Amino acid sequence: MPMTKPDAAMAAHLQARIEAISSLHRDIAMLGEATDLSALARLGDGINDRLRELHPKVLREHEMMALREQLRVISEDCRRLLDNFKPFTCPYCGCPTPEGDGLVLDAWGYFHCDGEDAGEECGARLRLDDSGRAIGYINRTLEGDTQLS
Ligand SMILES: [Zn+2]
Predict the structure, then answer these.
(1) How far away, in angstroms, is 133 Cα from ligand 1 center?
(2) Which one of 24, 45, 48, 91 has the minimum C-beta count within 10 Å?
(3) In this predicted model, what pLDDT tens digit does every residue of 38-52 receive, in sequence order?
(4) pTM of the predicted model, to two decimals?
């Protein structure tokens, strides 16, 4: 017995499924191209919105769950990678702040930026948080004039 040819409605539904699943796979693959955490989060949110849109009309429950799981796993790995390798920079000259043994703090706990990579003396005295991110300059925070304790 020959397989019944899909009618127009069925063909349109199959076409929509193929397009939706292909584009979701493409979007998930794009996560690996994100160069910073906010771009990664934006892409992830977009994919989640799309999954919500497509389920249950186009995607079946287990397909939606499988794609959501892929999104979660890849996002998590990308996030850890970006977190680890994202260089922290001096907010004044843009030079990366050194890590580990290269990081020398003065008696008051400030790092003195020499602006080496910018090709000129920077001279900023930076307060760094536990992860090495510059959060303030002398007694000024970057966000405003709030005093650091
Ligand atoms: Zn600097």
Answers:
(1) 13
(2) 45
(3) 889 999 999 999 999
(4) 0.55
- Give every strand in the sheet of 134-137, ordered side by side: 110-112, 125-128, 134-137, 140-141
The pLDDT assigned to 8 comes to 92
Q: What residue ranges do the domains of the chain occupy?
A: 8-85, 88-149
CA of 140 to the centre of ligand 1 (A): 15
The residues near 128 (Cβ < 8 Å, ≥ 6 apart) are 88, 97, 103, 105, 111, 134, 135
Distance 18 CA to ligand 1 centre (A): 51
Q: What's the CA-to-centroid distance between 142 and ligand 1, angstroms?
A: 13
The answer on pLDDT for 141 being more than 50 is no
* pLDDT tens for each residue of 72-121: 999 999 988 877 655 678 877 777 887 777 788 888 888 888 876 656 67
Burial degree of 43 (CB within 10 A; 0-12, 13-18, 19+): buried
User: How far is it, in rounded angstroms, from Cα 32 to Cα 74?
Assistant: 8
